[in-house]
Amino acid sequence: MPLKLVLRPGEKLIVNGAVLGVGDHPVSLFFYNKVNFLRGREILKEENCDTIEKKLYFIIQLIYIFPEDAELNLIKFGIILEEARLARPEENAIFDEIQTLVQSGNYYRALKICRKLFPAESSSMSADGVEKAAKAPVVVTKVRRRPLLNQPE
C-alpha cells in the first residue's frame, strides 16, 4: 500500500534530502517504497533553534533527512539530549522515549514527540518561529435584493 501525501499550493517537501516545491495547484504524491520525508511545516531551520528542545528536534531532523552524516549527528544528538535533560529534568520520560526511538531508527516519530516539548508561543507565531499572517475575521452579511421598480410581476 503506497503512502499518499496531499500538498497544498506553494508547500515544500524534503524527500531523501531533496527539496521539492509545489506549484499553483494541490498535488497528490504516492510513495511506493521507503522514503525519508518532511513537509514544509515540519521543517525547522537552524536559525530558529533558540531553545534546547528545538536544537534537539533539529539534530534529529538532520539524522533523518541526511543519513550519510548520521554517525556524526548521532554523537551531537547525545550531547544535546544530555543538555536537554539537565535543562528540563521534569521531561525525562519524554527524553527517554525520544532516545529509544532514535536508537531504533524511528526518527519521524521521535520528531513528532520532540515537537510537543516546544514552548508555547504567541498565537501569531508558528512552532518554527516564523510569523503567521494575521487572518481577518470572516464577516457574513445577508444581502437582500430589492425588487426593481416598474417591473411587471
TrEMBL record:
Keyword RNA-binding included in the entry's annotation: yes
GO molecular function: mRNA 5'-UTR binding
Signal peptide: none
GO terms (BP aspect): bacterial-type flagellum organization; mRNA catabolic process; negative regulation of bacterial-type flagellum assembly
This protein's record includes keyword Transmembrane: no
Swiss-Prot/TrEMBL keywords: Bacterial flagellum biogenesis, Cell projection, Cilium, Flagellum, Repressor, RNA-binding
InterPro entries: Flagellum_FlbT
Stated name of the protein: Flagellar protein
Species this protein is from: Niveispirillum lacus
Higher taxonomy: Bacteria, Pseudomonadati, Pseudomonadota, Alphaproteobacteria, Rhodospirillales
